Amino acid sequence: MVIQKHGPLRGELAVPGDKSISHRSVMFGALSEGITEAENFLTGADCLSTISCFRQMGILVEQNGTSVVVHGKGLHGLTRPSGIIDAGNSGTTVRLLSGILAGQPFDSTITGDTSIQKRPMKRVMTPLSQMGASIASVHENGCAPLQIKGSPLHGIHYLSPVASAQVKSCVLLAGLYADAPTSVTEPAISRNHSELMLRYFGADIQCEGTTSTVLPDPRLTGQKVNVPGDISSAAYFIAAALLVPGSEVLLKNVGINPTRDGMLRVVRAMGGDVTLINESTGGAEPCADLLIRSSSLHATTIEGELIPTLIDELPVIAVLAAFAEGTTVIKDAAELKVKESDRIAVMTENLKRMGADVEPTDDGMIIHGGRPLHGATINPHLDHRIAMSFAVAALAADGETKIQDADCVKISYPGFYTDLEGLGTV
Ligand code: SPQ
Questions:
Q1: Which pLDDT score, from 0 to 100, does residue 162 have?
Q2: Is 113 a catalytic residue?
Q3: Which stretch of DSSP H or E encloses residue 265?
Q4: For ligand 1, atom 10, which residue shows the shortest CA distance?
Q5: Helix/strand/coil (H/E/C) assignment for every residue in 30-58
Q6: What is d(CA 29, CA 32) in angstroms, rounded to the nearest whole number?
Q7: Is the pLDDT assigned to residue 426 strictly greater than 60?
Q8: What CA–CA distances, in Å, run from 55 to 60, 205, 287?
Q9: What's the pTM?
Q10: What is the mean pLDDT of residues 25-46?
Q11: Ramachandran region of residue 253, left (φ > 0), alpha (ψ -120 to 50) or beta?
Q12: Is the CB of 166 under 6 A from ligand 1?
């Protein structure tokens, strides 16, 4: 994909459905009695992997574009998978499904692509083992493939060392099959879609501070889920509209759950012009239209409890920081190293190729912004969020930028380049 510096972005866009909520609609729908209908479901490769995993366990899932119907079989209705379960590139699928598989009356093995096989799974193996699960890393390297022998589970109170929605959700899902309540306390609140949605499907879940507690053996019932637009996908258009002078873009129906909206807080702190319109708090998840106008940006510091609320947006925030006046510091974000790529190393490598002044640190980046960037050849290391972040950088950099393996965006946003084009850019 070759992208040039471009004039203003203008128009309206509805970004695709939220990835985290789409995954969960299939998972929780499968464990419910009756039908779950998800609208605006994300058809990215990760969510299709989740669908195919549940089909392997006997769940009928009908998909017609962004409409998905899950024929749930209840908490105890999954059947022994036909073979090794393949989660593709999706960390969410492996980790959440491990919690479900730990409590089944059958054995299973779950794995994924080469990137997934390098991502840390001890973070879910440790609490699941404490619950009595039998879960082993086949190559004894703490990564997938994971071999799980279904076992009786005990309720625990788990003090998680990381603020991770995947760890929290894995333990809470195993807790549905435990003999007593299960709690997870995190160092800071991570996205709470599992809690909101499990409650909506009928589970008894209490949240207090950074602790979530689930009671075992609920009767879950299929529901209608209107998946809001994914703020992590909206992030690229927010950034592009802020950076390219003269831009004005309206992003329709974006999820603004406070455990996910850190980017909005950060871009405002950087001087970005972002207005929320038509806010709705009616459903389980709050939504709004976002009106973005180009702005001159200045540096900020991003740290602490803010980090889990914008962890997936940090690559594109780093791009904004490279164009902003002053020195932006990103810290407490070591989790970036264990995503689809090492996002600290890969962002640093590619920002430097474009002429940015950036230093990687153990837990983030220091970006001395305001230097003009120039086009370059970008290697996203097959990481969708890196490819999309540099498509944004390309719009504001001098000359031409070439993004290698550009179709890796299909993981979370198959229509990304078409939507960018729709705003008059590619
Ligand atoms: O599913 P996967 O591959 O882990 O996807 C990513 C992403 O960038 O799309 C992370 F690489 O999002 C995670 C997110 O970082 C999705 C997620 C969820 O749906 O629960 C939670 C976050 O991960 P974590 O490790 O902080 O729990």
A1: 97
A2: no
A3: helix 262-269
A4: 339
A5: HCCEEEEEEECCCCCHHHHHHHHHHHHCC
A6: 5
A7: no
A8: 6, 27, 31
A9: 0.98
A10: 98
A11: left
A12: yes
